Amino acid sequence: MHHKSIEDLAFGQVLSQIQALALSDEGSQALPNLPFLYDRESLGKRQRQIASLLRLFSMQPNVTLSSFPSLGEQVSHLSDPRFSLEGSELYDLFSYIRSAYQLYQFCHGSLDDGTTFTDLHPLMGESFAQELLALADSIEHTLDASGQVKESHPALRALRKQVEAAKQERSRYCNQFIQHNKDAMQSDQEALRDGRLVIPVRSDRRSVVQGFITSTSSSGNTVFMEPYALVEMNNSVVMAQNQILIEIAKILAELNTKVRECRFELIDLLKKVGRTDALLSIAHWAQRVDAHATDLSCEHVNLLEARHPLLGKKAVPITISLDAVIKAVVISGPNAGGKTVTIKTVGLFALLNQFCGYLPAKEGSSLPLFDTIFTDIGDEQSIEAELSTFSGHMKQVGMILRSITTRSLVILDEL
Q1: Rounded CA gap, 143 and 253, in Å?
Q2: What is the pTM of this model?
Protein backbone atom coordinates (compact mmCIF):
# COMPACT_ATOMS: atom_id res chain seq x y z
CA MET A 1 0.00 0.00 0.00
CA HIS A 2 1.10 3.56 -0.69
CA HIS A 3 2.81 5.07 2.36
CA LYS A 4 1.19 8.48 1.98
CA SER A 5 -2.29 6.94 1.80
CA ILE A 6 -1.63 4.94 4.97
CA GLU A 7 -0.68 8.21 6.68
CA ASP A 8 -3.55 10.27 5.22
CA LEU A 9 -6.16 7.71 6.26
CA ALA A 10 -4.82 7.45 9.86
CA PHE A 11 -4.23 3.73 9.58
CA GLY A 12 -1.23 4.10 11.90
CA GLN A 13 -3.47 5.41 14.69
CA VAL A 14 -5.77 2.43 14.40
CA LEU A 15 -2.74 0.14 14.36
CA SER A 16 -1.56 1.80 17.58
CA GLN A 17 -4.93 0.94 19.15
CA ILE A 18 -4.42 -2.68 18.15
CA GLN A 19 -0.79 -2.71 19.38
CA ALA A 20 -1.93 -1.48 22.79
CA LEU A 21 -3.87 -4.74 23.16
CA ALA A 22 -0.82 -6.95 22.56
CA LEU A 23 0.26 -9.25 25.37
CA SER A 24 3.92 -9.25 24.31
CA ASP A 25 6.57 -7.00 22.82
CA GLU A 26 6.89 -9.53 20.02
CA GLY A 27 3.20 -9.25 19.16
CA SER A 28 3.32 -5.46 19.20
CA GLN A 29 6.40 -5.46 16.97
CA ALA A 30 4.94 -8.05 14.58
CA LEU A 31 1.77 -6.05 13.86
CA PRO A 32 3.37 -3.30 11.69
CA ASN A 33 5.12 -6.05 9.71
CA LEU A 34 1.90 -7.95 9.09
CA PRO A 35 1.43 -7.64 5.31
CA PHE A 36 -1.63 -6.27 3.53
CA LEU A 37 -3.25 -9.08 1.58
CA TYR A 38 -4.29 -8.82 -2.05
CA ASP A 39 -5.93 -12.17 -2.77
CA ARG A 40 -9.08 -13.65 -1.28
CA GLU A 41 -7.47 -16.97 -0.33
CA SER A 42 -4.84 -15.37 1.93
CA LEU A 43 -7.30 -12.88 3.40
CA GLY A 44 -9.82 -15.67 3.98
CA LYS A 45 -7.22 -17.64 5.93
CA ARG A 46 -6.47 -14.64 8.16
CA GLN A 47 -10.20 -14.05 8.64
CA ARG A 48 -10.73 -17.66 9.70
CA GLN A 49 -7.89 -17.50 12.23
CA ILE A 50 -9.27 -14.33 13.78
CA ALA A 51 -12.78 -15.81 13.74
CA SER A 52 -11.48 -18.91 15.54
CA LEU A 53 -9.83 -16.77 18.21
CA LEU A 54 -13.04 -14.78 18.68
CA ARG A 55 -15.08 -17.94 19.01
CA LEU A 56 -12.67 -19.35 21.60
CA PHE A 57 -12.98 -16.08 23.54
CA SER A 58 -16.76 -16.19 23.46
CA MET A 59 -17.05 -19.88 24.37
CA GLN A 60 -14.37 -19.75 27.10
CA PRO A 61 -15.08 -16.43 28.86
CA ASN A 62 -13.21 -17.48 32.02
CA VAL A 63 -9.92 -18.04 30.20
CA THR A 64 -7.47 -15.19 30.83
CA LEU A 65 -4.24 -15.22 28.85
CA SER A 66 -1.18 -13.92 30.70
CA SER A 67 1.00 -11.10 29.44
CA PHE A 68 4.62 -11.72 28.52
CA PRO A 69 7.68 -10.10 30.16
CA SER A 70 10.17 -8.35 27.87
CA LEU A 71 12.86 -10.84 26.90
CA GLY A 72 13.83 -10.05 23.31
CA GLU A 73 17.12 -8.33 24.14
CA GLN A 74 18.22 -11.02 26.61
CA VAL A 75 17.47 -13.87 24.20
CA SER A 76 19.39 -12.14 21.42
CA HIS A 77 22.55 -12.21 23.59
CA LEU A 78 22.38 -15.89 24.57
CA SER A 79 24.90 -16.90 21.90
CA ASP A 80 27.57 -14.85 23.74
CA PRO A 81 29.13 -17.12 26.40
CA ARG A 82 30.13 -14.05 28.41
CA PHE A 83 26.50 -13.06 28.82
CA SER A 84 24.41 -14.46 31.65
CA LEU A 85 20.93 -13.80 33.01
CA GLU A 86 20.37 -12.54 36.51
CA GLY A 87 17.98 -14.38 38.81
CA SER A 88 15.09 -12.00 38.11
CA GLU A 89 15.66 -12.37 34.35
CA LEU A 90 15.69 -16.15 34.67
CA TYR A 91 12.36 -16.01 36.47
CA ASP A 92 11.01 -13.73 33.72
CA LEU A 93 12.09 -16.41 31.27
CA PHE A 94 10.11 -18.98 33.24
CA SER A 95 7.07 -16.66 33.18
CA TYR A 96 7.46 -16.19 29.41
CA ILE A 97 7.57 -19.95 28.75
CA ARG A 98 4.59 -20.48 31.05
CA SER A 99 2.57 -17.77 29.24
CA ALA A 100 3.61 -19.18 25.86
CA TYR A 101 2.50 -22.69 26.85
CA GLN A 102 -0.82 -21.25 28.02
CA LEU A 103 -1.19 -19.55 24.62
CA TYR A 104 -0.28 -22.82 22.89
CA GLN A 105 -2.95 -24.67 24.87
CA PHE A 106 -5.49 -21.96 24.06
CA CYS A 107 -4.83 -22.27 20.31
CA HIS A 108 -5.08 -26.06 20.55
CA GLY A 109 -8.17 -25.94 22.75
CA SER A 110 -11.58 -27.29 21.89
CA LEU A 111 -15.14 -26.40 22.72
CA ASP A 112 -17.46 -28.49 24.87
CA ASP A 113 -18.91 -30.07 21.74
CA GLY A 114 -15.45 -31.23 20.66
CA THR A 115 -14.96 -28.55 18.01
CA THR A 116 -11.26 -27.81 17.39
CA PHE A 117 -9.69 -24.99 15.40
CA THR A 118 -6.98 -26.54 13.26
CA ASP A 119 -6.36 -23.23 11.45
CA LEU A 120 -4.84 -21.94 14.72
CA HIS A 121 -2.49 -24.89 15.28
CA PRO A 122 0.29 -23.63 12.94
CA LEU A 123 0.54 -20.33 14.86
CA MET A 124 2.17 -21.82 17.97
CA GLY A 125 3.22 -25.05 16.23
CA GLU A 126 1.80 -28.54 16.36
CA SER A 127 3.78 -29.31 19.53
CA PHE A 128 5.48 -27.40 22.32
CA ALA A 129 9.22 -27.91 22.78
CA GLN A 130 9.73 -30.29 25.72
CA GLU A 131 13.17 -28.76 26.30
CA LEU A 132 11.50 -25.44 27.14
CA LEU A 133 9.03 -27.07 29.53
CA ALA A 134 11.92 -28.83 31.28
CA LEU A 135 13.81 -25.53 31.48
CA ALA A 136 10.76 -23.81 32.97
CA ASP A 137 10.43 -26.56 35.58
CA SER A 138 14.10 -26.19 36.55
CA ILE A 139 13.75 -22.44 37.00
CA GLU A 140 10.48 -22.73 38.94
CA HIS A 141 11.92 -25.34 41.33
CA THR A 142 15.10 -23.30 41.86
CA LEU A 143 14.02 -19.65 42.10
CA ASP A 144 11.28 -17.78 43.92
CA ALA A 145 9.19 -15.01 42.32
CA SER A 146 11.82 -12.39 43.16
CA GLY A 147 14.51 -14.33 41.30
CA GLN A 148 16.32 -15.46 44.46
CA VAL A 149 17.41 -19.06 44.94
CA LYS A 150 14.84 -20.68 47.21
CA GLU A 151 15.71 -21.11 50.87
CA SER A 152 14.71 -24.76 50.57
CA HIS A 153 17.18 -25.54 47.77
CA PRO A 154 19.04 -28.75 48.73
CA ALA A 155 22.48 -27.34 47.88
CA LEU A 156 21.95 -24.41 50.25
CA ARG A 157 20.24 -26.16 53.15
CA ALA A 158 23.43 -27.56 54.73
CA LEU A 159 25.34 -24.33 54.13
CA ARG A 160 22.63 -22.27 55.83
CA LYS A 161 22.80 -24.61 58.83
CA GLN A 162 26.54 -23.94 59.02
CA VAL A 163 25.91 -20.19 58.99
CA GLU A 164 23.31 -20.46 61.75
CA ALA A 165 25.62 -22.64 63.86
CA ALA A 166 28.47 -20.15 63.45
CA LYS A 167 26.18 -17.25 64.35
CA GLN A 168 24.89 -19.03 67.46
CA GLU A 169 28.41 -19.78 68.64
CA ARG A 170 29.36 -16.16 68.06
CA SER A 171 26.32 -14.87 69.98
CA ARG A 172 27.01 -17.17 72.94
CA TYR A 173 30.59 -15.93 73.11
CA CYS A 174 29.46 -12.27 73.05
CA ASN A 175 26.90 -12.83 75.83
CA GLN A 176 29.44 -14.59 78.02
CA PHE A 177 32.10 -11.97 77.36
CA ILE A 178 29.74 -9.12 78.29
CA GLN A 179 28.62 -10.92 81.48
CA HIS A 180 32.24 -11.49 82.55
CA ASN A 181 33.33 -7.91 81.84
CA LYS A 182 30.33 -5.85 82.97
CA ASP A 183 32.43 -3.06 84.45
CA ALA A 184 34.01 -2.31 81.08
CA MET A 185 30.80 -2.56 79.03
CA GLN A 186 28.81 0.43 77.79
CA SER A 187 25.80 -1.86 77.07
CA ASP A 188 24.70 -5.36 77.90
CA GLN A 189 23.98 -6.07 74.20
CA GLU A 190 26.45 -6.70 71.40
CA ALA A 191 26.15 -4.58 68.22
CA LEU A 192 26.25 -5.43 64.52
CA ARG A 193 28.62 -3.43 62.31
CA ASP A 194 29.05 -4.33 58.62
CA GLY A 195 27.85 -7.86 59.23
CA ARG A 196 30.20 -8.45 62.17
CA LEU A 197 29.27 -8.60 65.87
CA VAL A 198 31.22 -6.15 68.07
CA ILE A 199 31.35 -5.46 71.81
CA PRO A 200 30.38 -1.92 73.04
CA VAL A 201 33.17 -0.98 75.47
CA ARG A 202 33.50 2.19 77.56
CA SER A 203 36.21 4.31 76.03
CA ASP A 204 38.02 4.74 79.35
CA ARG A 205 38.10 0.97 79.90
CA ARG A 206 39.13 -0.21 76.46
CA SER A 207 42.53 -1.35 77.70
CA VAL A 208 40.74 -4.08 79.62
CA VAL A 209 39.67 -5.79 76.37
CA GLN A 210 42.30 -7.54 74.29
CA GLY A 211 41.25 -7.10 70.68
CA PHE A 212 40.72 -4.70 67.76
CA ILE A 213 38.81 -1.43 67.79
CA THR A 214 36.57 -1.37 64.72
CA SER A 215 34.75 1.97 65.27
CA THR A 216 33.66 4.53 67.85
CA SER A 217 30.38 6.21 68.73
CA SER A 218 29.70 9.80 67.63
CA SER A 219 30.18 11.02 71.22
CA GLY A 220 33.46 9.15 71.59
CA ASN A 221 32.31 7.56 74.85
CA THR A 222 32.00 4.09 73.31
CA VAL A 223 34.43 2.04 71.28
CA PHE A 224 33.24 -1.05 69.39
CA MET A 225 35.74 -3.87 69.71
CA GLU A 226 36.33 -7.37 68.46
CA PRO A 227 38.18 -9.47 71.00
CA TYR A 228 40.69 -11.75 69.31
CA ALA A 229 38.47 -14.83 69.72
CA LEU A 230 35.51 -12.92 68.27
CA VAL A 231 37.55 -11.97 65.20
CA GLU A 232 37.85 -15.65 64.26
CA MET A 233 34.16 -16.26 64.94
CA ASN A 234 33.14 -13.30 62.77
CA ASN A 235 35.43 -14.57 60.04
CA SER A 236 33.81 -18.02 60.29
CA VAL A 237 30.34 -16.48 59.78
CA VAL A 238 31.53 -14.38 56.83
CA MET A 239 33.23 -17.37 55.20
CA ALA A 240 30.13 -19.53 55.67
CA GLN A 241 27.99 -16.80 54.12
CA ASN A 242 30.44 -16.51 51.23
CA GLN A 243 30.11 -20.24 50.62
CA ILE A 244 26.36 -19.67 50.15
CA LEU A 245 27.06 -16.88 47.66
CA ILE A 246 29.48 -19.12 45.78
CA GLU A 247 26.89 -21.92 45.67
CA ILE A 248 24.20 -19.49 44.48
CA ALA A 249 26.52 -18.34 41.70
CA LYS A 250 27.03 -21.99 40.68
CA ILE A 251 23.27 -22.63 40.66
CA LEU A 252 22.62 -19.56 38.50
CA ALA A 253 25.47 -20.55 36.18
CA GLU A 254 23.94 -24.02 35.76
CA LEU A 255 20.57 -22.46 34.91
CA ASN A 256 22.25 -20.16 32.39
CA THR A 257 23.91 -23.18 30.77
CA LYS A 258 20.50 -24.82 30.38
CA VAL A 259 19.10 -21.59 28.93
CA ARG A 260 21.92 -21.36 26.36
CA GLU A 261 21.30 -24.97 25.36
CA CYS A 262 17.70 -23.95 24.54
CA ARG A 263 18.53 -20.69 22.77
CA PHE A 264 17.35 -21.86 19.33
CA GLU A 265 14.07 -23.10 20.79
CA LEU A 266 13.68 -19.77 22.61
CA ILE A 267 14.31 -17.74 19.45
CA ASP A 268 11.72 -19.85 17.65
CA LEU A 269 9.28 -19.45 20.55
CA LEU A 270 9.53 -15.64 20.42
CA LYS A 271 8.67 -15.74 16.71
CA LYS A 272 5.66 -17.97 17.35
CA VAL A 273 4.44 -15.76 20.17
CA GLY A 274 4.85 -12.67 17.97
CA ARG A 275 2.75 -13.94 15.07
CA THR A 276 0.10 -15.46 17.37
CA ASP A 277 -0.14 -12.41 19.60
CA ALA A 278 -0.44 -10.14 16.55
CA LEU A 279 -3.60 -11.97 15.43
CA LEU A 280 -4.78 -12.17 19.03
CA SER A 281 -4.50 -8.37 19.31
CA ILE A 282 -6.58 -7.93 16.16
CA ALA A 283 -9.20 -10.29 17.58
CA HIS A 284 -9.32 -8.29 20.82
CA TRP A 285 -9.64 -5.07 18.81
CA ALA A 286 -12.43 -6.54 16.66
CA GLN A 287 -14.23 -7.58 19.82
CA ARG A 288 -13.78 -4.13 21.37
CA VAL A 289 -15.06 -2.13 18.35
CA ASP A 290 -17.76 -4.70 17.46
CA ALA A 291 -16.17 -5.48 14.10
CA HIS A 292 -17.43 -8.16 11.74
CA ALA A 293 -15.73 -10.16 9.01
CA THR A 294 -16.27 -8.81 5.51
CA ASP A 295 -18.06 -10.89 2.90
CA LEU A 296 -15.26 -12.03 0.56
CA SER A 297 -17.73 -13.53 -1.93
CA CYS A 298 -18.96 -10.02 -2.77
CA GLU A 299 -16.68 -7.86 -4.93
CA HIS A 300 -18.32 -4.46 -4.73
CA VAL A 301 -18.50 -1.66 -2.14
CA ASN A 302 -21.19 -2.44 0.41
CA LEU A 303 -20.50 -0.81 3.77
CA LEU A 304 -23.40 -1.15 6.20
CA GLU A 305 -23.51 1.28 9.13
CA ALA A 306 -19.75 1.73 9.03
CA ARG A 307 -18.28 3.49 12.10
CA HIS A 308 -14.90 5.22 11.96
CA PRO A 309 -12.90 3.48 14.74
CA LEU A 310 -11.07 6.65 15.81
CA LEU A 311 -14.26 8.60 16.50
CA GLY A 312 -15.56 6.23 19.18
CA LYS A 313 -19.08 7.03 20.36
CA LYS A 314 -19.07 10.22 18.25
CA ALA A 315 -18.98 8.19 15.03
CA VAL A 316 -22.07 8.58 12.86
CA PRO A 317 -22.70 5.28 11.04
CA ILE A 318 -22.63 5.55 7.26
CA THR A 319 -23.92 3.17 4.63
CA ILE A 320 -22.48 3.10 1.12
CA SER A 321 -23.57 0.53 -1.44
CA LEU A 322 -22.32 0.71 -5.04
CA ASP A 323 -22.98 -1.55 -8.00
CA ALA A 324 -19.89 -3.23 -9.44
CA VAL A 325 -20.24 -1.23 -12.67
CA ILE A 326 -19.76 2.10 -10.85
CA LYS A 327 -16.14 3.22 -11.12
CA ALA A 328 -16.32 6.77 -9.73
CA VAL A 329 -18.38 8.59 -7.12
CA VAL A 330 -18.62 12.31 -6.44
CA ILE A 331 -19.75 13.30 -2.96
CA SER A 332 -21.15 16.82 -2.57
CA GLY A 333 -22.81 18.68 0.25
CA PRO A 334 -22.50 21.61 2.69
CA ASN A 335 -19.44 22.38 4.78
CA ALA A 336 -19.11 20.25 7.92
CA GLY A 337 -21.55 17.79 6.38
CA GLY A 338 -19.23 14.80 6.80
CA LYS A 339 -17.87 14.47 3.25
CA THR A 340 -14.20 14.13 4.25
CA VAL A 341 -15.01 11.77 7.12
CA THR A 342 -17.00 9.62 4.71
CA ILE A 343 -14.26 9.29 2.11
CA LYS A 344 -11.62 8.73 4.81
CA THR A 345 -13.82 6.02 6.32
CA VAL A 346 -14.04 4.24 2.97
CA GLY A 347 -10.28 4.50 2.46
CA LEU A 348 -9.44 3.38 6.00
CA PHE A 349 -11.87 0.48 5.75
CA ALA A 350 -10.22 -0.60 2.49
CA LEU A 351 -6.89 -0.75 4.35
CA LEU A 352 -8.36 -2.54 7.36
CA ASN A 353 -10.15 -5.03 5.14
CA GLN A 354 -6.90 -6.09 3.48
CA PHE A 355 -5.05 -6.05 6.80
CA CYS A 356 -7.39 -8.23 8.84
CA GLY A 357 -10.71 -8.68 7.00
CA TYR A 358 -12.67 -7.24 9.93
CA LEU A 359 -14.48 -3.88 9.92
CA PRO A 360 -16.50 -1.97 12.53
CA ALA A 361 -19.65 -2.29 10.43
CA LYS A 362 -22.68 -4.55 10.25
CA GLU A 363 -22.30 -8.14 9.14
CA GLY A 364 -22.54 -8.51 5.38
CA SER A 365 -20.34 -5.53 4.54
CA SER A 366 -17.89 -6.01 1.68
CA LEU A 367 -15.18 -4.23 -0.28
CA PRO A 368 -13.15 -5.07 -3.40
CA LEU A 369 -9.51 -6.00 -2.90
CA PHE A 370 -7.43 -3.12 -4.26
CA ASP A 371 -3.86 -3.42 -5.53
CA THR A 372 -3.09 -0.05 -3.92
CA ILE A 373 -4.80 3.02 -2.52
CA PHE A 374 -3.95 6.57 -3.54
CA THR A 375 -5.07 9.69 -1.69
CA ASP A 376 -4.88 13.42 -2.20
CA ILE A 377 -6.22 14.86 1.02
CA GLY A 378 -5.22 18.03 2.84
CA ASP A 379 -2.61 20.72 2.23
CA GLU A 380 0.23 19.59 -0.05
CA GLN A 381 2.25 22.81 0.22
CA SER A 382 5.99 22.18 0.52
CA ILE A 383 8.31 25.03 1.47
CA GLU A 384 11.42 22.89 0.91
CA ALA A 385 10.37 21.98 -2.63
CA GLU A 386 9.02 25.52 -3.26
CA LEU A 387 5.59 24.16 -4.19
CA SER A 388 2.40 26.10 -3.64
CA THR A 389 -0.69 24.33 -2.27
CA PHE A 390 -2.10 24.12 -5.81
CA SER A 391 1.18 22.86 -7.30
CA GLY A 392 1.51 20.30 -4.51
CA HIS A 393 -1.94 18.92 -5.32
CA MET A 394 -1.16 18.80 -9.03
CA LYS A 395 2.07 16.91 -8.40
CA GLN A 396 0.22 14.34 -6.29
CA VAL A 397 -2.60 13.96 -8.84
CA GLY A 398 -0.04 13.56 -11.62
CA MET A 399 1.72 10.78 -9.69
CA ILE A 400 -1.64 9.06 -9.15
CA LEU A 401 -2.55 9.23 -12.84
CA ARG A 402 0.78 7.70 -13.79
CA SER A 403 0.47 4.88 -11.25
CA ILE A 404 -3.14 3.72 -11.09
CA THR A 405 -4.49 0.45 -12.46
CA THR A 406 -8.04 -0.78 -12.88
CA ARG A 407 -7.78 -2.31 -9.38
CA SER A 408 -6.69 0.89 -7.61
CA LEU A 409 -8.73 2.97 -5.20
CA VAL A 410 -8.26 6.73 -5.66
CA ILE A 411 -9.54 9.21 -3.05
CA LEU A 412 -9.42 12.91 -3.94
CA ASP A 413 -10.62 15.53 -1.49
CA GLU A 414 -11.80 18.81 -3.14
CA LEU A 415 -10.27 18.09 -6.49
Answers
A1: 13
A2: 0.83
